[in-house]
Q: What sequence folds into this?
């Protein structure tokens, strides 16, 4: 499948289908020949250090990472196949209620608390990267994630999704845990209104929470996801 992929992997798994492909890499659904169990195989260029941190970490709101390898800047990751629908797929039919939105975002905060405790920042929270598995929201895709380095003044690589990425992701500073809080605020508003908060901010208390999450100055946002969870309770 790939030139540096081990013979063991090639002999034990078969490709089911290509899920996503971009200039940076690809995401494939693969099946284990002996058990029939399905997994996600990620291949991408860049820094895969967050996947290594997540190896063996068990959280209902993050996928299990089984293997992570890197060679000459190319990363290969085998992770849990999370069965469910992405939020962007569900948004095509209907918006979410305030109650549903609170539940989803509080669960994402729980997953991010685990991630942030490892000094990792996701940096690409958006509807496409959240899967609803039954009653659980699961945050996926850590290809843009990085470890926070207190000594750095800015990110070494500009990554993220326009509209959801915080201002500091565009070279204005170094992304940290508050960067993900900004993206969560945008996500909340999109779930409730279908639009970016700069175009149409949801009303009431949730609107005020979103407004604080999406402050341009990170110091004016919630200090961490626990404070955001408390505001949503």
A:
């Amino acid at each position: 499948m790939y030139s540096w992929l081990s013979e063991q992997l090639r002999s034990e798994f078969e490709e089911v289908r290509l899920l996503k492909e971009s200039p940076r890499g690809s995401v494939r659904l693969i099946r284990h020949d002996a058990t029939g169990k399905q997994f996600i195989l990620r291949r991408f260029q860049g820094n895969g250090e967050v996947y290594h941190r997540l190896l063996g970490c068990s959280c209902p709101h993050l996928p299990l990472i089984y293997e992570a390898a890197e060679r000459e800047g190319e990363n290969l990751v085998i992770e849990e196949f999370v069965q469910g629908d992405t939020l962007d797929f569900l948004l095509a039919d209907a918006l979410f209620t305030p109650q549903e939105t609170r539940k989803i975002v509080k669960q994402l905060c729980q997953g991010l608390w685990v991630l942030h405790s490892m000094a990792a920042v996701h940096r690409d929270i958006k509807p496409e990267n959240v899967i609803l598995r039954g009653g659980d929201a699961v945050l996926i895709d850590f290809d843009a994630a990085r470890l926070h380095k207190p000594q750095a003044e800015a990110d070494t690589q500009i990554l993220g999704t326009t509209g959801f990425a915080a201002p500091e992701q565009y070279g204005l500073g170094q992304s940290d845990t508050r960067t993900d809080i900004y993206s969560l605020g945008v996500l909340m508003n999109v779930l409730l209104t279908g639009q970016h908060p700069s175009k149409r901010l949801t009303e009431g208390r949730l609107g005020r929470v979103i407004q604080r999450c999406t402050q341009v100055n990170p110091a004016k946002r919630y200090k961490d996801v626990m404070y955001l969870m408390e505001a949503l309770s």
Observations:
- Helices lie at 7-12, 49-54, 87-91, 98-117, 177-193, 204-213, 225-232.
